[in-house]
Amino acid sequence: MKQLLTGLVFIFCIGCTSEKGPAPASNQVDCNTAVITSARMYAIIQENCTNRACHPGSGSPVVADFSTLARLKTYVNGNEAMFRLRVTGPNADMPQVMAYPALSRATRDSIACWIGKGMPD
């Protein structure tokens, strides 16, 4: 019995260490190194905003017209604070209809980087 108890204590002591595991990977986009193009960002907007009949331009149910890249840029330039709040912010609520999935954090960060860099082509 004593040997069994000694063995269990030994295993317990060896099994308990205070090593730290690796830090969790960050899902944030690094704006300094990310290559973010207007073509890619507009494709994301088309997929999530324009093609779902929310911001198509003609007959759009809302004010924002994202039917072309130029119109998207014009809208963002004139409404940047609102766009950031609704699309890229921590409490972003777009897309909001028909139970479409929320934009991923990486997508929101990429759009925010693109805007922050002046929406380069």
From TrEMBL:
Entry protein name: Cytochrome C Planctomycete-type domain-containing protein
Organism: Chitinophaga niabensis
Taxonomic lineage from the root: Bacteria, Pseudomonadati, Bacteroidota, Chitinophagia, Chitinophagales
